[in-house]
Amino acid sequence: MTPEFDKQRQVYEDTEDLAQRIKELEKLLSLAPRHKGGERMVGDYRKKLAKLKAEFEKKREQERSRRSGGGGSDEGAIRKEGAGQICLLGVTNCGKSALINAVSNADLVVADYPHSTPIPTPAMMNLDDVNIQLVELPGLFEGSYDTGIGRQSMAVARNTDCIAIIIDLSQDVESQMEIILGEIDKARIRLNREATTVRVERTGSGGLMIYGKQFYDGNIQEVYDYLEVRRITNIIVRFQKPATYQQLIDAMDASVSYVRALVIATKGDSPGSEVQFKYLEENYGKRFEIIPISVERNENIEPMKWALYQHLDILRIYTKLPGKKHEERPLVLPIGAVVEDAAEKVHKVLFIERFRAAVIIRESDKIKRRQVGLNYPLQEGDILQLMHR
Q1: Which pTM does this prediction carry?
Q2: Quick one: average pLDDT of 289-294?
Q3: Cβ atoms of residues 134 and 104 within 8 Å
Q4: DSSP H or E run through 340
Q5: pLDDT one-digit tens code per residue, 184-212
Q6: Side by side, which strands form the sheet with 314-319?
Q7: Is the dihedral of CA 135, 141, 145, 146 positive or negative?
Q8: Which end of the chain is more exposed for a tag (fewer CB within 10 A), N or C?
Q9: In DSSP terms, which residues pair with 337 in a beta bridge?
């Protein structure tokens, strides 16, 4: 054993806080000897780590149940409206209200004192005849999820179509991101991650069946140890893409919510904003699309609106009657929609039960006009003519 290993083992054994104990044990394992004689010891420590993590997750689940068990008020609950809903999350006075006022008919209070928005507040943004609901959530601070209004706000964010993280370029960017992402993580919200990375299926028999082990980022024994500690004896776990231990835990937790997200950097006209924006790009540019704006100077507002639209994963379809121009107001459908989805919105009896054919007019294609069936996939901006028997 190395002196560093022995020293770290003592640190681990002296640590009482559960979360910190997990971190110290992970560090101890990173220092563990790799020779054959140390395999049993390493295996024992891995089992201890799995047990500690399972205990930690159990405590978190109990705490979440305790918080949610007290009921709550309907004040601040937001009903979804429009083609999609986007929640604006940021620390207090980061420019959320000013942004919403700039892209809608709302007249929200823009104040230089903290927490001027006390409850989730909706507004409607119109973009080329598409209405998109924006919801300003009260300003976040460290520990805000532990408050009643904080949990209420995050309940709205969990069910939204997209989260726009609002970052004030006139303030310290690093601390803002740490606070926002920390509170989002407490709420069991995962941003820009795929729910399909790990699939789990409880079974009544068959034992532990783990597939796609090559995608697991770590020692696969950790997975078996975790399931054993949780007393799960019959389950199918499929790693369908590269996945971490945390993603396995998320897959086992039905309360985890997966939401699309982007970052909007406000107050781009403030002194030092270029340096702050560069930090954002270097540290978060791979995970989020980042849009810099200045409401004061009306800069980059229109590109920001389209970026919000694109993060909703929706498309616009324009219907038309033979011999006439297409309708000005589009049908809004999710990406991946087919002709049948549009037909059902127009008239289910006429255009599905009595469907004869459909004509797609697509200016971007070489074949600009084609006759198609109900299963034909639609694209943004398609003009659709439906025919019935």
Answers
A1: 0.74
A2: 96
A3: yes
A4: helix 339-348
A5: 999 989 999 888 789 888 887 888 999 99
A6: 331-334, 314-319, 382-388, 355-361, 369-372
A7: negative
A8: C
A9: none
